[in-house]
Every structure is written in structure tokens, then in C-alpha cells.
Amino acid sequence: MVINQFTTSEPNPPFAVMRQDMYADYCNDCASEGIQPIDWHTWKVLVSELLAKHKDEAWSCMYAQKVAFDRFHSN
């Protein structure tokens, strides 16, 4: 699984774009693992949960990939 990260030298994109990009990356990771990704609505809820706890949009979007795998795809 690859978790993409933004570098500090690049400005973060708008939150909606960032969230969509991270979801697309997550779906690509799922495809490479041969598993069914969670749906877009569930993804948005997951990012919102993380954002409520940590108040950091970029971190919440990136970390959602790991949390989705841990929560929904672990055996």
C-alpha cells in the first residue's frame, strides 16, 4: 500500500480536491490489492472523523488511506 504525502515545499490543494485525490489514490491501492474500496460517502465520513480529531486537512486526507485499510480491509 502506498500512502502519498504532500511535501512542505508545495502548497496544499483545496480540501475538496485533496480529498478527491486521496480517494482516487486509495481506490488505486485497493485495485492493486484486489479488494473492493469503500464508497465515496464512507470515505468522506472517515476523513471528517479524522479532521474533527486533528484539525489538519492534509493529514486527515492522507491518514484516511491507512485508517480505511485498518478499519475496513484488515483480516
Summed up:
This protein has 75 residues and is an all-alpha fold.
Key terms:
mainly alpha, 3 helices, globular
Topology:
Blueprint: H1 15-33, H2 40-54, H3 57-72
Please explain how this structure is put together.
By secondary structure, the chain is mainly α. Helices cover 67% and strands 0% of the residues. It is built from 3 helices and no strands. It has helices at residues 15-33, 40-54, 57-72. Helix 1 runs parallel beside helix 3 (57-72) and helix 2 crosses helix 3. The protein is globular and about 30 Å long.
Shape category:
globular
Mean model confidence by pLDDT: 86
Q: Give the proportion of residues in helices.
A: 55-70%
Using the CA coordinates, give the radius of gyration: 12 Å
| Total count of strands | 0
Give the N-terminus to C-terminus distance in angstroms.
Answer: 15 Å
Amount of beta strand: under 5%
Number of helices: 3
